[in-house]
């Protein structure tokens, strides 16, 4: 009987140890998610780079003035809530998170309307605006649309994949669903604009 008790106690200890190890990995992954969101809320992109590759979010481009403006607009209303976390294995944790950000669909819709108005108003201008002048005007319109107070927000729930790197750091893998939610549905809004153009053509 004593032997059975010892075996049972040993099993409990091993199970507890494995459970604690799993909890430790989940806590580290969640700490990276928290660190990333706090960096974005503070508009500290250098700090955010420690937790996620910023270039993945801006499609591999350098963060130019327009990109910075959009990110600041979206993150002005940024909030999040970790719903649940699931350890896939020792190197992968999925953190289900609700992300609230500025809704970019109405922002981009207004931008498109004003951009088209500008294009039509200059269609027969002589001389035509230069490419530099047009780009500058597009930037001004984007600033006007994105810098308004009291912009609407949107909330999406996504699975954030957090991976342990070779250097034992936990970093977020920025997939399409995560990026779209983080940027307030910007990808969906852009795709809808493209579909509207294709339909009109």
Provide structural commentary.
By secondary structure, this protein is of the alpha+beta class. 57% of the residues lie in helices and 19% in strands. The protein is built from eight helices and four strands. It has helices at residues 2-41, 45-48, 54-57, 65-75, 104-121, 131-146, 176-182, 186-200, and strands at residues 79-89, 92-102, 153-164, 170-173. Strands 1-2-3-4 form a four-stranded antiparallel β-sheet. A hairpin with a 2-residue loop joins strand 1 and strand 2. Helix 5 (104-121) packs antiparallel against helix 6 (131-146) and helix 5 (104-121) runs parallel beside helix 8 (186-200).
Looking at this protein, list some descriptive labels.
8 helices; alpha+beta; 4-stranded antiparallel β-sheet; elongated; 201 residues
Itemize the secondary structure elements and their pairings.
Layout: H1 2-41, H2 45-48, H3 54-57, H4 65-75, E1 79-89, E2 92-102, H5 104-121, H6 131-146, E3 153-164, E4 170-173, H7 176-182, H8 186-200
- What is the subunit organization of this protein? single chain
Number of extended strands? 4
Percent helix among the residues?
55-70%
Compute the separation of the termini in Å. Answer: 82 Å
Task: Figure out the total of helices.
Answer: 8
Q: What structural class do you assign from the helix and strand content? A: alpha+beta
Q: Order of strands in the sheet with the most strands?
A: 1-2-3-4
Q: What is the strand content?
A: 15-25%
Task: Tell me the Rg in angstroms.
Answer: 23 Å
Low-confidence stretches: 12-22
How are helices and strands ordered from N to C?
HHHHEEHHEEHH
Largest sheet: 4 strands, antiparallel
The average pLDDT score comes to 82
Shape: elongated
């Amino acid at each position: 009987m004593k032997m059975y008790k010892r075996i049972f106690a040993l099993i409990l200890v091993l199970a507890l140890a494995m459970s604690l190890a799993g909890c430790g990995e989940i806590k580290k992954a969640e700490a990276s998610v928290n660190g990333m969101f706090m960096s974005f809320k503070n508009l500290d992109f250098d700090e955010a780079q420690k937790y996620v590759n910023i270039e993945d979010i801006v499609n591999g481009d350098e963060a130019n003035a327009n990109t910075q403006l959009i990110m600041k607009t979206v993150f002005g209303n940024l909030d999040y809530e970790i719903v649940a976390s699931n350890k896939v294995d020792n190197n992968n944790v999925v953190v289900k998170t609700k992300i609230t950000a500025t809704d970019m669909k109405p922002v981009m819709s207004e931008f498109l309307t004003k951009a088209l108005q500008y294009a039509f108003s200059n269609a027969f201008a002589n001389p035509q605006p230069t490419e530099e002048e047009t780009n500058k005007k597009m930037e001004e319109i984007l600033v006007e649309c994105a810098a308004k107070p009291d912009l609407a927000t949107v909330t999406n729930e996504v699975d954030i994949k957090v991976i342990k790197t070779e250097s034992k750091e936990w970093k977020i893998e920025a997939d399409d669903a995560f990026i779209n939610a983080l940027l307030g549905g910007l990808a969906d809004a852009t795709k809808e604009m493209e579909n509207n153009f294709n339909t009109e053509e």
